[in-house]
Task: structure prediction
Amino acid sequence: MAETRYIFTTGGVASSLGKGIISSSLAKLLISRGFRVAIQKLDPYINIDPGTLNPYEHGECFVTDDGAETDLDLGHYERFTNVRTSQANNVTTGRIYQAVIDKERRGDYLGETVQVIPHITDEIKNRIQLLGSSSNYDFVITEIGGTVGDIESLPYIESVRQMKWELGNRCLVIHLTLVPYLASSGELKTKPTQHSVKMLLESGVQPDVIVCRTEKHLTQAIRNKIALFCNVNPSAVIESIDVETIYDVPMLMRDEKLDQVVLEKMQVPIRKQHDLKHWEQFLHKLKNPIGEVNIGLVGKYVELRDAYKSITESFIHAGAENQYKVNLIMIHSESINESTCKHLLKDLDGILVAPGFGERGIEGKIIAIRFARENKIPFFGICLGMQCAVIEFGRNVLGYKDAHSTEMNPATPYPVIDIMEAQKKIDKKGGTMRLGSYPCTISPKSIVSEVYNTTEIVERHRHRFEFNNAYITEYEKVGMVPVGINNQNNLVEIIELRDHPWFVAVQFHPEYKSTVASPHPLFVHFVKATIQYKKVHSK
Ligand code: GLN
Result:
């Protein structure tokens, strides 16, 4: 296909309707028909990236191969499409303004008054089109964050209006709304959808397709009504009913013919039938488990659904791969102490200690790790989870009293986790961690060499602190072994325990690379270890 086509997803009525999932599902369907598709998210906040936001504000921060700290929707894009994203796939208002202001200072606009229209909108349009032209995509799907009517979204909606005008049917707008069900009158209500389309029209944008989130099926009469009031064909009113799992949505959208409507509207000939065989197999295994395991996720943001998004999704992929249901039990690290520990952890088949920052909840994580180590429960530590495993081992096996990470206690007598040399000079917090993909060499005769079935891996990072090499020999002597090393910087990336059936902790974030098409082997094997543990212990 010669020219890239641009599809926009906007949202109305309420936030959190699932624009990311609809965009990812459409991408999956188009890819399964043989098209090349990229997805991009435009976020209307002024932060340069979500890296400096705490998870209570924004959920998980997703990290790409090129080290961009991005919106968690990029995680959905990768998990659904198996296509890697990068910095170019997530643009914030902060980044747009920074680029325009830098150009102004450089003198690119000499003599001009720099304004939202055309300077900011031009920068937005460039970012959208650059992604299409740089890799020759057939389609770029651009999700506009926020809800139509938000002040912050206005320049983005205006850019969509301009692109529609400039590119004609190479541009298409999908508007996602909510059709609420009023139990008292037993009716679905279309008025909020009508209002939100009116709001879009006030900005000069006519949506081409309306996707309706609903808890009850839309009747043909409701579809006709929405079509009539919103100037779209009845076939372009798509139902998105609540489902058991987000992974059902591509199938739902296929049945509602979302991609077919999009292709017809853009006058793109249909290439081939969908190839969704693998996806169907995945759903089958997900929905027909032959057993179940209980895995505890110990972290300090457990009350927040989106804080560990990539980890929870990785367990869904790994569970399906093993055809086992993983019951992920969220355990608040602050609730774990010497007296509660046994009660909270004794029925688990595996324990994962989550990534994180700062002092809060640290001691609970350390107690949970001790419990997993001493009781030989499968253990998986990620990033801060690995650092806590090193601290626990230092304190309780090597007898290093008050061993700690210098992040939590800069004055510790045993700084077993310490800041990297290169990090010491850095005083700016935004985008300065060790970020993105780094290679790691794995020792043969380790659990992880079997897990990965190779000795050279690449994984994504997001941290400032590291295992302090000054202590390696002492650790190794008594059974905590570094089995994955970054040879360029001589950094410990993976540790294992010698006398334990499955105790693996990693400095990187494997969860960012797990997708439906390619579940991450560490999660798959951790779940396997928990199944094994359960078999042995339920006898
Ligand atoms: N706070 C730790 C560090 O900066 C761990 C970070 C994480 O878990 N992502 O090294």
